[in-house]
Design a protein that fits this description.
This protein is of the alpha/beta class. It contains ten helices and 23 strands. It folds into three domains: 97 residues, Alpha-Beta Plaits (2-Layer Sandwich), CATH 3.30.70; 310 residues, Peptidase S8/S53 domain (Rossmann fold), CATH 3.40.50; 82 residues, Immunoglobulins (Immunoglobulin-like, Sandwich). Helix content is 19%, strand content 23%. Strand 19 and strand 20 form a beta hairpin. The chain starts with 22 loop residues before the first strand and ends in a 7-residue tail after the last strand.
Length: 529
């Protein structure tokens, strides 16, 4: 998994295929070194604009290169207030067969820090039979977490995706409204570079309408419902962060049903400029980019928590954006806490979350739902939990949220032979994560045996995390003792059977507990020889 400080083709079926680093055939990112003072945006539509800068000669050489390769446009890649990002340009050339030659030539210029092909990122999920059972919320102990918080409207989760149906009955009550923008006045009131972005933005079509009614664009609507559908309203579904708000960021054109998400960079740029608390990214690919890493570094510096799907390729090859620094990578599990037969795994995974047979809203109507599967579904579940954590402790930094998310996860290695240490910190647990946020202990335990014989001694070990733990409690079913206050008690079981164990820990912030159902199985003694 990645080191912690505190701590887009649409897949319509599960299949194994060769890993590909997909990149644009005509577009590149070019970053100018910090010590060269000129603006490439002065070159527009293949027309050389003479400048008076001290680097005019170098600029002329650069623009001649543009003429040679018939650059179609050149513009600043970022509206964000980052000195590094504002020196990056997105450049397109007319003839895709000349892209490699263009890259080679432009890298020869001493004022270029780097030039790179732009990765193409893809949406991914695997539709399944319809089944409106939200098993995944009990699995992550959502009900216990809701006793602590059900989310607050001041916490915003950006869904950067194909689109979000804003009038869906389960989403409309929770759609974000930009408090610093006046609707319909044609003015960028909040000076973030986007005019009238009331509920989000359509970066693909360049307008302020990020919604869709197209059934083919259901991915983002499904993810939005998982993260923050309105709960307790007698309609449709519940969500993990039922009062948090959804910022819609549309990254595909209205008229196109495409397997890719071609405006991923622009979508991220908008989301960061709008400064939500959490950004959810259910797309990706095998290509990495220095420019994208700079984006995530900047988002992190603003205190934004970024969550991304680990990918559906059943591989341990690093997948992006999930594998970038400052991004929480999420793999997918089933109802038995086993890794799905599509989820990526490996050293870059941070946590796992339910991702098989997930029931949520879709865009075909304002009351439509479907059962979909994928790390695309696991990702917004984690993003929603991060929003719930921020709701519970509004002052929490993104580093603190990630630290509690990972340290409170349930280790599921024992249920996944062959994937040990390949699934990050384990499967998320909402209650334990929120308990960590308020300083209560995050409780866990194991034992030296889980299938002993009758009367054989079993030592239980406290594995709780937390400061200043003063008291421990154990409750045993079927053991020779019913309770214990020792940190690591030793017990035995007089009769065969399968039994549950409950463990608790207390510090100055309160008490937390965990019950492991059917944790230990006692075998009958072997027959004498």
């Amino acid at each position: 998994m990645k080191t912690h400080l505190l701590l887009i083709t649409l897949f319509l079926n599960i299949s194994l295929f060769a890993q590909q680093n997909k990149t644009s055939s005509t577009d590149v990112f070019v970053k100018i070194k910090d010590d060269f003072e000129f603006d490439l945006s002065s070159y527009s539509n293949a027309k050389l604009v003479k400048t008076q800068s001290k680097n005019a000669i170098i600029e002329s050489l650069f623009f001649n290169l543009f003429d040679k390769y018939e650059v179609k446009f050149s513009n600043k890649a970022s509206k964000l207030k980052s000195s590094k990002l504002q020196r990056i340009y997105k450049i397109s050339i007319k003839d895709s067969t000349k892209l490699n030659a263009f890259l080679a030539d432009i890298k020869e210029n001493k004022f270029v820090e780097y030039a790179e092909k732009i990765p193409i990122y893809e949406l991914f999920y695997t539709p399944n039979d319809l089944h409106p059972n939200q098993w995944y919320l009990p699995k992550i102990n959502a009900s216990q977490a809701w006793d602590l918080s059900v989310g607050v409207g001041s916490v915003v989760i950006a869904i950067v995706d194909d689109a979000v149906r804003l009038d869906h009955q389960d989403l409309a009550p929770n759609i974000w409204v930009n408090p610093n923008e006046i609707a319909g006045n044609g003015i960028d009131d909040d000076a973030n570079g986007y005019i009238d972005d009331i509920n989000g933005y359509d970066v693909a079509d360049g307008d302020n309408n990020p919604t869709t009614t197209n059934a083919g664009k259901k991915h983002g609507t499904h993810c939005a419902g998982i993260a923050a559908a309105k709960s307790n309203n007698g309609t449709g579904i519940a969500s993990i962060s039922s009062n948090c708000k959804i910022m819609a960021v549309k990254c595909t054109r209205d008229a196109v049903i495409s397997p890719s998400i071609p405006f991923a960079y622009e979508g991220l740029e908008y989301a960061i400029a709008a400064k939500p608390d959490v950004i959810s990214l259910s797309w990706g690919g095998f290509g990495s980019s220095q420019t994208y890493q700079l984006l995530f570094d900047y988002a992190y510096s603003l205190g934004i928590t970024v969550v991304a799907a680990a990918g559906n390729n059943y591989t341990d090859v690093p997948f992006y954006p999930a594998s970038y620094n400052h991004v929480i990578s999420v793999g997918a599990t089933d109802s038995n806490d086993q890794i799905t037969n599509f989820s990526n795994y490996g050293s870059t995974i941070d946590v796992m979350a339910p991702g098989l047979g997930i029931w949520s809203s879709v865009s075909s109507s304002n009351a439509a739902y479907e059962n979909l599967s994928g790390t695309s579904m696991a990702c917004p579940l984690v993003a929603g939990l991060c929003g719930l954590m921020k709701s519970y402790v509004p002052s929490a930094t993104n580093a603190f949220i990630e630290g509690c998310l990972t340290s409170s996860a349930i280790n599921i290695d024992a249920l996944n032979f062959g994937y040990e240490n390949q699934m990050g910190f384990g499967r998320i647990d909402a209650f334990r994560a929120l308990s960590c946020m308020n300083g209560k202990p995050v409780v866990d335990f194991d034992s030296d045996k889980t299938t002993p014989c009758v009367s054989q001694q079993v030592t239980f070990f406290d594995k709780s995390i937390g400061n200043g733990i003063t008291n421990y409690g154990w409750t045993f079913t079927g053991a020779n003792i019913a309770t214990s206050t020792l940190k690591d008690p030793v017990v035995s079981y007089p009769s065969p059977g399968t039994y549950s164990v409950t463990h608790s820990a207390t510090n100055s912030k309160g008490i937390s507990s965990i019950t492991k159902t059917s944790y230990i199985t006692i075998k009958s003694p072997s027959a004498a020889i």
